[in-house]
Specification:
mainly alpha; 77% helix
């Protein structure tokens, strides 16, 4: 293990340095992420705590069930679904992480030249992948089991056994992921396999989400059908097999929940021996398959671009733009459509928009105590905020990483005869029109489904048309201010401080616009329902609100772009000593 520990030393030293040498700004970021993570952790705990207590209350009140252990039956079914979900997430995360660590990491050339066997390299990378793919599941599974222990009054033995069951559960999922990756890379190049994997993962997520949404889970809160729905849940069965690690972990926690010590020991022994066997199998297969897969992955990284037809490019590629600006714009469009990771995201976006519209179509508005006409217009007004939140999420995925996607080639942009202002404006001009059209279609289609008044339709269309430029500018400006040129996956830049700041500022901007317009829009809509004309003060209030909204939207466009331009003009060295272009000119 000395060689394996030597290979893991750089990771340990980098983590130690990042923890010990934190500056004041880093501490602020760490505290902010810590607070958000704790809030999410507490949210999961209270959600499961409420659900399990609801099962207990419903089992007591529903006399038709006739089973005193009905609450435990529902809790066990929910626990089985939780483990099945965790196992699927661990497999997908493990495959993605293992593929990056074993075959697509940048330091493979250096590590491969060391006097260390490839099996030891595999084992070190496998341990890194295990930690990277499992730590989040491990942390956020804790509130789930804590809620089970508190609701069913379990002691220290239950929690210790949960920890003992989760360790081989995560190890087994990581080992299965490594086996899948090693065998798949022998058939497909690693880069192409990653694109296929992303597409399959997104497709599976969309299908599962569609299945859940079409099942209409809102019926669970309907008092008329709650009892029958719970009996249906009790009869559900999840995929169980003695050969699945999720079954081993589930059996262990279930037996601990019922206080069966012999069942706990058997399930834990099965889980530990299964995890050890899978790790040994991976290590044995890596001796024959890992080096071949690495060699094949390196061979598939570079391809010939082929001859460049300059005359054809000049006549067909954006003829209405001239000079270097046309070259940058054409490069941006080509890069987007050639990136295979973008297409699954577009597919996911289309599916989620369809689900978004379906949610409005199946709303049970007739059961509301509020008048249907009033409720529809209230929902249409609030839908402006929901649609722009969807836009903010899309901007975080596509617009925010736009500058980081230049990666090491950013020095070419800095050396080109194009200013940083023009560079940002080109990206803004490419991303703004499709996002504007998409958001307007979303708002108009939702308003048509709700059959809102013409006044509210025009307010929604105009307001969203003013907000879209601000949100896109926020994403591009903050993405330029906080780029990540050195990451293997620039799309991860949105998970950093800049991405978090973008989402917070976008939420504040959207909430501000909605609150400014809420008062005058309400009074004018109220007057319309009573077939009376709004007063002059109301119209003046509406005009003032419109001016204030226009001013906020203008600030949201100008300030982030200026901030991002300033940070880019100061040089990428701000974001790291080895950032591309750090020796280039400081000013445009």
């Amino acid at each position: 293990m000395n060689e394996v520990l030597f290979l893991l030393a750089p990771r340990y030293l980098s983590v130690r340095k990042s923890l010990l040498s934190r500056e004041r700004g880093d501490l602020v970021k760490f505290a902010l992420f810590g607070v958000l993570g704790l809030a999410f952790w507490l949210g999961i705990f209270f959600l499961f705590f409420k659900i399990l207590n609801y099962f207990n209350v419903a089992a007591v009140e529903d006399q038709a069930v006739g089973d005193p252990n009905f609450a435990k039956i529902l809790a066990v079914k929910l626990l089985s679904m939780v483990f099945t979900t965790f196992f699927a997430l661990l497999l997908f995360s493990g495959v993605v992480t293992t593929l990056s660590k074993l075959y697509l990491a940048r330091d493979l050339f250096l590590v491969g030249s060391l006097p260390v066997s490839h099996a030891k390299v595999f084992l070190a990378r496998f341990l890194e992948s295990l930690v990277d793919s499992s730590w989040m599941i491990f942390i956020y599974a804790t509130p789930v089991f804590l809620s089970y222990g508190m609701v069913f009054h379990k002691g220290l033995f239950f929690y210790a056994n949960v920890f003992l069951a989760m360790v081989p559960f995560c190890v087994s999922a990581a080992a299965l992921s490594a086996l899948v990756v090693m065998l798949a890379v022998l058939v497909l190049p690693a880069s192409r396999f990653r694109g296929i994997l992303v597409f399959l993962g997104v497709s599976a997520f969309v299908l599962i989400y569609l299945a859940l949404r079409l099942a209409r889970p809102e019926r669970l809160v309907d008092p008329d059908s709650a009892a029958s729905m719970m009996r249906y849940l009790a009869s559900l069965s999840t995929p169980e097999s003695l050969f699945l690690p999720s079954t081993w972990a589930f059996d262990s926690v279930r037996e601990a929940l019922f206080g069966n010590l012999s069942g706990v020991l058997f399930a834990d022994a099965l889980a530990l021996s299964g995890a050890a066997s899978l790790v040994f199998l991976c290590y044995w297969i890596s001796g024959a398959a890992y080096f071949r897969g690495v060699s094949k992955a390196q061979e598939g990284r570079v391809s010939s671009p082929g001859p460049v037809a300059l005359a054809r490019w000049r006549t067909r590629r954006l003829p209405f733009i001239r000079g270097p600006v046309r070259a940058l714009a054409a490069k941006e469009i080509r890069t987007f459509f050639r990136d295979t990771t973008q297409w699954p995201q577009l597919f996911l976006m289309a599916a989620l928009i369809g689900i978004y519209l379906y949610n409005f179509k199946v709303l049970p508005l007739e059961r509301s105590p509020i008048g249907t006409a009033y409720l529809k217009n209230i929902l249409a007004f609030l839908n402006m905020g929901l649609a722009t939140f969807v836009l903010a999420a899309l901007s975080a995925r596509f617009v925010f990483p736009a500058v980081s996607l230049e990666k090491e080639a950013f020095w070419i942009v800095r050396a080109a005869p194009v200013s940083m202002r023009t560079f940002l404006l080109i990206k803004y001009a490419i991303y703004f029109p499709p996002l504007l059209v998409l958001t307007e279609i979303l708002v108009v289609a939702t308003n048509i489904l709700l059959t809102v008044t013409p006044f509210l339709m025009w307010v929604s269309v105009i307001t969203v048309g003013l907000m879209v430029p601000g949100i896109v500018a926020l994403g591009l400006g903050l993405g330029a201010a906080y780029p990540d040129f050195t990451s293997e996956n620039p799309l991860q830049a949105v998970t950093g401080f800049g991405g978090l700041l973008f989402m917070i500022l976008s939420a504040i901007f959207i909430a501000t616009v909605v609150m400014v317009e809420a008062g005058p829009v309400y009074y004018i809509s109220h007057a319309g329902f009573h077939h009376s004309a709004p007063g002059p003060l109301t119209l003046l209030w509406l005009g003032g609100a419109g001016v204030l909204v226009l001013f906020c939207c203008a600030l949201a466009v100008v300030l982030p772009l200026r901030f991002g331009l300033k940070r880019l003009s100061e040089g990428p060295a701000r974001n790291g000593e080895n950032a591309p272009g750090s020796t280039s000119r400081k000013k445009d």
